[in-house]
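Title: Comparing notes on inverse folding

I've been comparing how different people in this forum approach sequence design from structure. To keep things fair, I'm posting one structure and asking everyone to reply with a full sequence. Here's the target:
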């Protein structure tokens, strides 16, 4: 097998061994990607046919030779729009054969297939939000069913209407056996400590579903416009605001068994947990919904390893423990980690992870959270 840039000897070995053995679940050293985005071809076709109904614009840039889809708009943004580049689609976002080939190159044995955060559709009327969620979940299930050894489906729900969100969550569990749902960090400016969302988290806990929280908005668009800071600062901050609502708002206190995984290494959360504890100790308003320091509830959270920095990953593993960390690549966006095996190689070589801890991060914890029989 010829060398692939960014793909370690260990990764190539397991890739070749999987081909030889013919069944991924019998092979140690596998890798499960918890953070792996998808836009179904069917959705793109429907938007091209009737963008007004789906409240989305699809367009092709001749100069760049790239396509883009923009939910929430029915006309393409003007040329030169600073946000425009966020929406360019690489082939792997919607083409499954391309995705499978790139997964092979990256050393990914299996991925939790989740929609692009562009498609949360929280902006839409509840009826359209539900229609879109059903379409996307059906398409994700079809891909996972066609490739059961490569994908596990992760659903989406119309959280702008909690009743419809719960109904769709129950449907995908009942009809398809989904074990995970992806949600944003907030819903049109509303945070998850609001009473209206409590029924959703209660039902997710009852169903034993993993909630993978991926930010979908920049919380400070008026300030974070230049230099891609809406993503590199805004998204991690949105995750922090979300986690604060779950912790200080008592969601994790009321549902101690709920499974929550935060994308992008938890964003700003790990670096602030000491400050959160101090605030809880000295401010009465921080104690209103919880009877223990935030760090105690922090121990209930899971995190993907997408930090883009070995020292930060080491700190995350130290603060959260390796058993609470899973692999996440953010495929196929430009902010993705294209060398997930090498990230683990370096962490193990540096003593950040023992061999057993590496296996936990690589696949064991993800398999348990997603209820994959390995």
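Reply #1:
Here's my take.
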């Amino acid at each position: 097998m010829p060398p692939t840039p960014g793909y370690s000897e260990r990764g190539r070995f397991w890739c070749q061994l999987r081909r030889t053995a013919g069944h991924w679940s019998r092979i140690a050293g596998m890798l499960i990607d918890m953070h792996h985005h998808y836009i179904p071809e069917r959705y793109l076709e429907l938007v091209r046919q009737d963008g007004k109904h789906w409240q989305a614009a699809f367009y092709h840039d001749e100069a760049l030779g790239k396509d883009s889809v923009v939910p929430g708009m029915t006309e393409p943004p003007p040329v030169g729009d600073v946000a425009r580049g966020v929406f360019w689609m690489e082939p792997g976002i919607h083409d499954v054969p391309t995705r499978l080939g790139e997964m092979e190159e990256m050393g990914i044995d299996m991925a939790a297939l989740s929609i692009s955060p562009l498609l949360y559709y929280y902006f839409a009327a509840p009826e359209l939000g539900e229609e879109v969620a059903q379409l996307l979940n059906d398409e994700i299930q079809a891909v996972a069913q066609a490739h059961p050894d490569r994908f596990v489906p992760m659903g989406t729900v119309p959280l702008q209407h909690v009743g419809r969100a719960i109904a769709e969550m129950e449907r995908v569990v009942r009809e398809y056996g989904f074990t995970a749902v992806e949600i944003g960090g907030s819903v049109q400016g509303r945070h998850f400590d609001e009473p209206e969302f409590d029924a959703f988290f209660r039902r997710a806990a009852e169903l034993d579903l993993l909630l993978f929280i991926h930010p979908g908005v920049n919380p400070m668009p008026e300030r974070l416009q230049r230099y891609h800071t809406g993503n590199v600062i805004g998204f991690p901050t949105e995750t922090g605001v979300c986690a604060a609502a779950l912790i200080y708002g008592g969601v994790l206190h009321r549902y101690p068994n709920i499974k929550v995984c935060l994308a992008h290494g938890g964003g700003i959360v790990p670096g602030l947990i000491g400050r959160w504890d101090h605030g809880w100790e000295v401010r009465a308003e921080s104690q209103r919904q919880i009877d223990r320091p935030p760090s105690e509830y922090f121990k209930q959270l899971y995190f993907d390893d997408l930090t883009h920095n070995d020292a930060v990953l080491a700190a995350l593993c130290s603060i959260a423990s390796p058993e609470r960390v899973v692999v996440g690549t953010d495929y196929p966006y430009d902010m993705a980690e294209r060398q997930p095996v090498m990230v683990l190689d370096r962490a193990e070589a540096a003593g950040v992870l023992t061999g057993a801890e590496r296996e936990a991060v690589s696949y064991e914890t993800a398999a348990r959270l997603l209820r994959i029989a390995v």
